[in-house]
Design brief:
CATH topology of chain B: Rossmann fold
Shape of chain B: globular
CATH superfamily of chain B: Thiamin diphosphate (ThDP)-binding fold, Pyr/PP domains
Oligomer: heterodimer
Mean pLDDT of chain B: 95
CATH architecture of chain B: 3-Layer(aba) Sandwich
CATH class of chain B: Alpha Beta
Helix content of chain B: 25-40%
Largest sheet of chain B: 8 strands, mixed
Strand content of chain B: 5-15%
Distance between the termini of chain B: 55 Å
Number of strands of chain B: 8
Number of domains of chain B: 1
Largest sheet of chain A: 2 strands, antiparallel
Radius of gyration of chain A: 17 Å
Largest interface: A-B, 37 and 46 residues
Low-confidence stretches of chain A: none
Mean pLDDT of chain A: 95
Bound molecules: thiamine diphosphate, magnesium ion
């Protein structure tokens, strides 16, 4: 019984799965009142918000449109809009 | 072979989370957010064992993995036993170093079916952090009640109706069960306060011996609220006293989050969630609300939250 068990997956390989197609509402980062607090980055359950220097955006390949970033933004700098595909 | 599953050395300032995109959790999932925060606090030199449940299912549909670190799926009940094996094996091979080990599971996997394995892990003194992701029901199989489902919640196995207001048993005090093993560190945490959660994860991992975190993770689907409210619901759970944030070291409460300024009546927590909708539909529901308020008041008194 020296055969290795081959049931393993590469770390981070879930990125082949583009969950952005699930979305109906889309976050629009307005880049107007941003204070660089990075709450939008921290609270995203899909780890898809990134940026720096007051310019943050969601990676729409993965964003499911949950709206948590927009709800939590303390300066209301993110709008959720119906996405027309 | 072994090399392919070891984490690559990452430069600091890489923004990509150790629990990455492409997982199949529902939009707004509190458990996915919790996992992301826990892993990023733990860092790449961590080995993780995860029980069966939503967290495992949505993160690792074969051959994909959302984990950017060594990760193993145990059975439903034994992530703590598998992690114990990982820990003693690393020590026996002289390869433990600073590598951290996390065992984790849902509320069902932890407080019900896995409680024996968890107790063994805590009792044997392994250097492992156990994280219970509490979404207050067996979500992955379709919202059945668990020992951590709160009083009067509607689930598919504790339906509300003519003869019942839902789950008739109180939520187990899991923190006390863990702390009763006289371990160096046991705490509750919530996705409502990411910085507080990550501080607790770091503290637990820096503490020698077995440590435990009971993490509150709202579930938009099972609790019936709008996905954007995940952190808001978690915050109100704390502000009502229904989910107190507490740290216990060697059996003594060492820190609590006071709610003196934020204290809210339990209705504010229950109203936005459809699992408690039936409590607002009849006169008799008012008596039930009083019972739930009494649970919150008892927590507030127990930990001196105000
Ligand atoms: C021994 C065993 N019994 C039952 C199951 C079926 N099962 C898979 S996941 C699950 C529910 C998990 O609930 P919980 O631990 O609360 O995690 P959640 O899905 O809510 O995150 C059940 C009952 C199983 N996999 N193994
Ligand atoms: Mg659960």
């Amino acid at each position: 019984m020296s055969k290795p068990i081959l049931l393993f997956a590469q770390p981070g390989s879930s990125k082949v799965n583009k969950t952005g197609s699930w979305r109906t509402m889309m976050p629009v980062f307005k880049h107007k009142d941003c204070t660089d607090c990075r709450i939008c980055v921290t609270v995203c359950p899909d780890a898809c918000v990134s940026g720096k220097d007051k310019i943050y955006n969601a990676n729409l390949d993965y964003c499911k449109g949950c709206g948590v970033c927009a709800y939590e933004c303390p300066v209301n700098d993110i709008d959720m809009v119906l996405e027309v595909k | 072979m072994a090399d392919t599953i070891r984490p690559k050395k990452e430069k600091a300032a890489v923004e990509e989370s150790l629990f990455t995109s492409g997982h199949r959790a529902c939009a707004g999932c509190g458990e996915a957010l919790g996992a992301k925060l826990v892993m990023d606090a733990a860092g790449p030199d961590t080995i993780v064992a995860t029980s069966t449940g939503c967290l495992e299912v949505f993160s690792t549909p074969y051959p994909e993995s959302a984990w950017r670190m060594p990760w193993i799926h145990s059975l439903f009940e034994n992530s703590s036993a598998v992690a114990s094996g990982v820990e003693v094996a690393l020590k026996a091979l002289g390869r433990k170093g600073n590598t951290k080990i996390i065992a984790q599971g849902g509320d069902g996997g932890t407080a019900d079916i896995g409680i024996g394995c968890l107790s063994g892990m805590l009792e044997r003194g392994h250097e492992i952090l156990y994280v219970c992701y509490d979404n207050e029901a067996y979500m992955n199989t379709g919202v059945q009640r668990s020992g951590l489902t709160p009083f009067d919640a509607h689930t598919t196995t504790s339906p509300s109706g003519k003869i019942s207001f839902g789950n008739q048993r109180p939520k187990k005090t899991l923190l006390d069960i863990a702390a009763a093993h006289n371990i160096p560190y046991a705490a509750t945490a919530s996705v409502a306060y990411p910085a507080d959660l990550q501080r607790k994860v770091k503290k637990a991992l820096a503490t020698p011996g077995p440590t435990f975190i009971h993490l509150h993770v709202p579930c938009p689907l099972g609790w019936g609220y709008k996905a954007e409210l995940t952190l808001e619901i978690a915050r109100i759970a704390i502000d009502t006293g229904l989910f107190p944030l507490v740290e216990i070291e060697w059996g003594k409460v060492t820190r609590v989050r006071k709610i003196t300024k934020d204290k809210k009546p339990v209705e504010e927590y229950l109203k936005p969630q459809s699992r408690f909708r039936h409590l607002f539909a009849s006169e008799d529901g008012k008596k039930e609300l009083a019972k739930i308020q009494a649970i919150a008041d008892a927590n507030i008194a127990k930990y001196g939250l105000v």
